[in-house]
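can u pls check wat happens w/ magnesium ion
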Amino acid sequence: MSPSKNNVNNIPMAEDLIHLLPDSVANQIAAGEVIQRPASVVKELVENSVDAGATTIQVRLTDAGRTNIQVIDNGKGMSETDARMSFERHATSKIRESADLFSLYTFGFRGEALPSIAAVAQVELRTRRAEDELGTVLHIAGSRLESQEADICPVGTNFQVKNLFFNVPARRKFLKSNQTELNNVLAEMERIALVYPEIAFSLYHNEVELMNVPQATMRQRIQHLFGKKLGQELLTIDVDTSLVKVSGCVGTPESARKKGAHCFFFVNGRYMRHPYFHKAVMEAYAHLIPQSEQVPYFLYFNVDPSRIDVNIHPTKTEIKFEDEQAIWQILMAAVREVLGRSNMAPTIDFDVADCPDIPVYTTGDNYPTPPQVSVDTSYNPFTQSRGSDYKRPATHWEDLYGGVEGSTVGREIRFDAPEEPMPWDDITPSTSHDAAPEEPHLFSSDTESPYTFTDCYQYKGRYIVSSTPSGLMLIDQHRAHTRILFDRYLKQLAEQPAATQGMLFPEMVECSVAQSAMMETLLDDFLHLGFDISNMGGGSFAIQGIPEGIAGLSPTRLVTDILSSAMDKGSMPRAEIHRSMALTMARSAALVVGEVLSLAEMITLVDDLFATELPAYTPDGKKTYVIIEDAELDKLFH
Ligand code: ADP
Ligand code: MG
């Protein structure tokens, strides 16, 4: 639009509708976007203090911040000119300095915070740089500079924001109860404190200390903020992919709770809410915790800022990623891996009281030779006490392990005399220094500890009873076996096919159209599980070979069950379908209640259980064992 001829002197004429808003009004409008409540003031001021290189930041509030918000830092401070300039719209010192630190912001929101705050409150700024003798004290209210003078101040910056929204009654009414506003402030403080453990933060409300965390490491910071107990229930995560780098901590399954779990995502140093990624984390625990519960997590993403949607608002915490699905997968896999790696079992301390000292592993030449152990594997101390007429029913239990790598059946274990040398060959690294132990063990190398189950006992064909120093351990044999088989089947599905035994008379499975289509895609997976199946056309499939270890089960029934469990997960990633198939098969093939086990079988079962990655739980999250502590036992006798 061309300027009106009649308006050369900038005098508004009746027909001119467009005119510039006075600065104070423009600032108020902008302030409405950036400053909505005391928590927004705290966030903006504290972030500025962080940017100013402060190592100590103190926040003091009166009436949840309605009457007074003070943020004091020991950062680099401002010169006299900068102090004045900082309240100008779009005045910022940061775009050149740290374009990537907050590159999540649209640049449009740079330099908005201080003018916005000054538009809706009475602000006092006291600031001094180390190199200046005197600092600057400024008073601004409703965007109007009221005074500026030089004065003695400590190095750093001290902002005092009084009577927030004093000139915008509508906004003031919009504020919630003090408790709610205070909670919002605390939440903002936590989000910032979790990103900068190297900075000490404190928060006082009406002179009462609500938060005071010293400089610390990330793990310590979490503990300082949320308590020691939570700190002990965390597992460290660290993955680096070309798309995203994720670090931080997730809770153990034990840390799950119905509500109030502390769940935090940060991206490039900024807090974000991300319900979709939250699901990815929870999915990793799918079979480990009850569905209604949540685990705490503190996860820090680092991504190329160009791969996230920068068109976001400073007060918004949702962020859009370009590669959401891929990151979902990476995140879930990473959490699952950590859960697996951090064998939950070391929480049990197995009986070592009667064991001789373990030879310390050294890399030198004088590596001690493990004691030779001679073993009578057929010896069973229980056979006599059980009576001579005892005959173990044929369970074909060992068959389950036949031909499976890593099987421990027939391993040399001495059952008698616990005072005798223990089977060190199973515990200590093998004699060849650089040969990795062949099997995973209950104790990872840094916590390696000998253990033995020489005193196993089977109770009612259902539980295996053993002793640990802290108490009596009861293992549910069906669940334990389900865990072992699940891991094994999952491995077969991912890696090598299992051996299959040809059937004399193939069994037929009849499928609907949808089932046939699914079946066709699963034939290879079935082969990995040990089922040799051919498509005969017309919805008929012939089972020509079955895996070992499913004696007594109906192959057609099993195949149909596995098929429907796979169909339930039809649209899920392949790995989920595999888990579902493996679980169905493991549940069917696992030892049932009432199956009597020999001592060797029990020991193998227990050993195999603790060689799995998550021995404490079945794949669907049920406990495989419990420990009744000695103290509890003692109580029973009172
Ligand atoms: P932005 O943070 O986007 O730059 P602000 O309005 O929040 O915009 O701050 C404006 C400028 O004021 C900053 O760029 C910085 O130079 C200066 N500033 C604000 N707070 C502090 C502080 N606590 N210490 C030193 N300088 C500060
Ligand atoms: Mg700022």
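The mean pLDDT is 78.
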